[in-house]
Amino acid sequence: MSLDPSTIGRYKVLGALGSGAMGTVYLAEDPLLKRPLAIKVVREGTGDTEVLQRFQREAEVSARLNHPNAVTVFDVGEEPGLGPFLVMEYVDGERLSDLLKVGPIDPGQAAGLLIQAADALEAVHALGILHRDVKPENFMVTRDGRMKLMDFGIARADGGRLTSTATFLGTPAYAAPDILNGAHASAAADRWSFTLAAFEMLTGRLPFGGDSVGAVLYRIVHQEPAFPEDMAPEVREVFQRALQKDPAQRFPDLRSFLRPLLEALPLEPETRRGYLAHLEAATTGRPRTTLRLTTALGIPASRLRWYWAGGLLAVGLALGAVYFRSEPSRQLSIESRPAGAEVFLDGTPLGRTPLRQVVVKGQVTLLRLEKPDYQPLEVRLKDEDRDLSLRLVPAPFEVSVVSEPPGAEVSLDGQVKGRAPLVVQVPGEGPHTLRLALDGYQPWTMVPDRRKAPPDPIRLQKLRPRKPGQEDGKLKKFFKGIFQK
C-alpha cells in the first residue's frame, strides 16, 4: 500500500519523482492552472534543524530570483502529517550530471548550455546571493535545450543574511582552493565551480581527480589541473587562467571566461558569432514582483513560519496574523499566435500559451509574452480584459555576408546596404530578398532565413565573355533584321 499523499495543499499528487536527503519530490498538478508541478516535501518529525533551515533558505532565495534559466518556486506551505512543502516549476528533462555519464558534450551544444547557465548564476550574484553548490547535478537540461539552475538549499547572502554558519557545505570535488583554505564563500568560488562544470562538459572528466576525497582536495589546493592530451592549446590556456589558485588571477566574471572560451572552441563561424552576440546581449534577469492568485481562504496558525516569502504567489503576510484581502478576482485566458510563448504577469511567470482560466486576484497591470525569435510583447491590462488573443511579431535577425571575391555590393529588397563582408539586419516579417552584385560576375540572390545562414563565403560566378558579333547587340540586331524582312 502506497504511503504517498493524494493531495498536498490544493495540488493533486500524480506520483513520486524521487527522494533525497531533504525529503521527497512529487509530480503534481495545479487544479486551477492545469499545469504540472514539482512539490518538494520535508517530512515532519525529522528533528534536523539544518535540513529545515536549508529548505526555508531555498524558498527565500527562489522568491527573490526570477530568471528563465532558474527553476521557479510558485508556492510554499505546510501540510499536516507531511510537513513543509515547496511548489516548484516542473522541468521536463534530465540533470546535466546524468547527461555527462555517457561522456562529454559536443562543443557547440556545451557552449549554448554554458551561456544559459552563466546568465542564471550572474542573476543570482546580482541579488547579492552566493549559490555555494554549483555542479552538474544542480542543473537541469530540458528536452528543448534550455538550462535550468536549481537547488538553493545552501545558498547565502554575501553579507551573511541567509545563514550564520561558516561550515563548508558544498560538493568537495567542485570546491575552490580558497574555500578549502578557510576563506569565506564568494562569487569567485561559485565561478570556480562553474569552470569545473564547464571542463567536465567539454572533456567528460574533472581536472582534479583522485581515488579518495582527501586526494581530490589535496590536488585542488596544491597541484596544477590535469588536461587531456588532445585539448587544444587555446582551450587549455583559457582553463589555466580560470583555475588559478589565487582568485585575483582568475577571470573577473563569467562573461570574461566564456568569451575567450567561445573563441577557442572548435565551433562553426556562424555558431560562434551567434553565441558571442548572445553573450554580449545577455542580461542578469529581473527582480520578482508580487502577483496574488486565488488559493485557500485561510491558513492555520501552524503554517505561519512558512509564509515568510510574500512575493511567492498569493500570500499576504503580517507578523501577527495572516488574512487574504477581499479583493475582486477574475479569470484570464491568454492565447498567442504562434503558441508556446512564456507569459509573465507583473513579472511573475505563469507558463506558456495557450493558458486557460488563470484565476487572478487583485490588481495586475502588465502582461508580457516572450518567445525565441519573436519580439517581446507587453500589454497593459484593462479591467474588462478576459480573453486575450495576441499576435507576436518576428524579431529582426542578422545575416553575415562574405563574398568571394570580396567587395560585392549587398542590397536587401533593392536597398543598397554596403559591400561585403557585411552584416545585414533583416526585418523579422518577410519574405525579403538579399542580392549580391559585382562587375564581371553573375548576380547572386537568396531569401534570408534566420535558421539557415548563407554560404560562407558566397562564391560569385564569372560572366562568360561575349563571342564576336555580340558586342553592342550586333547579333541581336542581325536576327531582328531577318525576321522583319
Work out the number of β strands.
28
Number of helices: 10
Determine the N-to-C terminus distance: 103 Å
CATH-defined topology of the largest domain: Transferase(Phosphotransferase), domain 1
Write the layout of secondary structure elements.
Elements: E1 7-8, E2 11-20, E3 23-29, E4 36-41, H1 49-64, E5 65-66, E6 73-79, E7 83-89, E8 93-95, H2 96-100, H3 107-126, E9 129-130, E10 139-142, E11 147-149, E12 156-157, H4 177-180, H5 187-203, H6 213-222, H7 233-242, H8 254-264, H9 269-281, E13 286-287, E14 329-337, E15 342-345, E16 348-352, E17 355-361, E18 366-370, E19 377-380, E20 387-391, E21 397-401, E22 403-404, E23 409-412, E24 415-419, E25 422-426, E26 434-437, E27 444-446, E28 458-459, H10 474-484
Parallel strand pairs: 14-20, 22-28
Antiparallel strand pairs: 1-2, 2-3, 3-4, 4-7, 5-13, 6-7, 8-10, 9-12, 10-11, 14-17, 15-16, 15-18, 18-19, 21-25, 23-24, 23-26, 26-27
Helix pairs in contact: 3-5, 3-8, 3-9, 7-8, 8-9
The gist of it:
The chain is of the alpha+beta class and 485 residues long. Helices cover 24% and strands 26% of the residues. The protein is flat.
Report on the structure:
The chain is an alpha+beta fold and 485 residues long. It folds into 4 domains: 7-90 and 300-306, 2-Layer Sandwich (Phosphorylase Kinase, domain 1), CATH 3.30.200; 100-281, Transferase(Phosphotransferase), domain 1; 329-391, no CATH class; 397-459, no CATH class. It is built from 10 helices and 28 strands. The chain has helices spanning 49-64, 96-100, 107-126, 177-180, 187-203, 213-222, 233-242, 254-264, 269-281, 474-484; strands at residues 7-8, 11-20, 23-29, 36-41, 65-66, 73-79, 83-89, 93-95, 129-130, 139-142, 147-149, 156-157, 286-287, 329-337, 342-345, 348-352, 355-361, 366-370, 377-380, 387-391, 397-401, 403-404, 409-412, 415-419, 422-426, 434-437, 444-446, 458-459. It has a 6-stranded antiparallel β-sheet with strand order 1-2-3-4-7-6, covered by helices on one side. The longest helix is centred in the first third of the chain and has 20 residues, at 107-126. It is flat, with a radius of gyration of 29 Å. Mean pLDDT is 79; it is low at 157-169 and 283-327.
